Amino acid sequence: MLPVAELHLHIEGTLEPELIFALAERNGIQLPYANLDELRARYEFTDLQSFLDLYYANMSVLQTEQDFADMTRAYLARAAQAGVRHAEIMMDPQAHLARGISLETCVKGVSSVLATSEQEFGISTLLIAAFLRDLSEESALAVLEHLLAMEAPISAIGLDSAEVGNPPAKFERLFAMARDAGLHLIAHAGEEGPPEYIVEALDVLGVERIDHGIRCMEDPALVERLVAEWVPLTVCPLSNVRLRAVDSLAKHPLPEMLAVGLNVSVNSDDPAYFGGYVDDNFTELQEVLGLSEFDRVRLASNSIRSSFASEERKAELLAELGYSGA
Ligand code: HPA
Ligand code: ZN
Fold first, then answer.
1. What is the pLDDT of residue 8?
2. C-alpha pair distances (Å), 73 with each of 11, 46, 111, 174, 217
């Protein structure tokens, strides 16, 4: 197993059907599905929104700090098997606030487990607060203010949820506030939205990484810029297939993205919903696209270099990958 950094992962998207049922029972929540098969039958998505509807609905089972901790622990155990040695984990605080769950509950539940992830699972981690772009910037500003006031252990902010119609520029003040607070900045762009959203995320928000970014391939000038500036794109192949951003894995632009020299990595996005974790993404890429050992090592090295881990940690993981020096 190659040592990799997972840079694009929504912790709520790691809730496996079995855990959804277990937490529902623990919390006395009546799910709208009678059994696992009925739930699994809903994992047939037509676009991003059809997935988001189920993703937000299933979060209803997350009620206590313990629930958030159990979900996080389950992800780390599975990620360790997948070769993940460093993980930058997004959570959606606004989705929990909307259900009446406090910031303290969700942040503490996740971060209490992340605090010992390196000792317990060999995975260094950091936490990213992602903001829902289909809500207002005022809502995001209030939540970020609260996170900063409570000294939540977050290293970055991100931007997720329904992309089309919610361009990055809508969140200019939010990203300025996060930058002033010393946080790293990332945003989903160019998943379903046009290449212009990638440009806006870079120029208006000042992000350091783009989540997805696959639609950059429609704009040769943008590709040239992304290569020249070595902007990391956290690509999620199985997610793109399941949300129909691409027709099939065989038609995924990843090989071309590598060939033109883009800084791409492979990530799982919402592994419980999209058919697998990072190792599953790599296996299918190898089987379907014939991805070479050379390219797999390059993807792993890109992921480590594009992370917000300390220089020492990056050097340690690159050495494991077979690189001496940086
Ligand atoms: N895209 C946008 N928002 C999301 C996703 C995604 O893939 N997963 C969870 N929230
Ligand atoms: Zn995502």
1. 99
2. 10, 30, 11, 30, 36
Q: Where are the domains of the chain?
A: 4-321
226 touches 203 (CB < 8 A): no
pTM: 0.98
Superfamily for the 4-321 domain: Metal-dependent hydrolases (3.20.20.140)
Answer for the pair 25, 35: CB distance below 8 angstroms, yes or no.
no
Please tell me the residue having the least CA distance from ligand 1 atom 2. Answer: 161
Residue 312's SS3 state is: helix
Candidate of 191, 197, 214, 267 to mutate for ligand 1, largest count of ligand atoms within 8 Å of Cβ:
191
Euclidean distance between CA atoms 269 and 266, whole angstroms: 9
Atom of ligand 1 at shortest range from CA of 12: 9
Give the distance (Å) from ligand 1 centre to CA of residue 151: 25
CB 213 within 8 A of CB 260: no
Q: Which residue ranges in the chain fall short of pLDDT 50?
A: 326
pLDDT at 1: 87
What pLDDT does 324 receive? 59
Clarify whether 256 is annotated catalytic: no
Contact 62, 69 (CB under 8 A): no
User: HSE on the CB side for 162, CA within 13 Å?
Assistant: 12
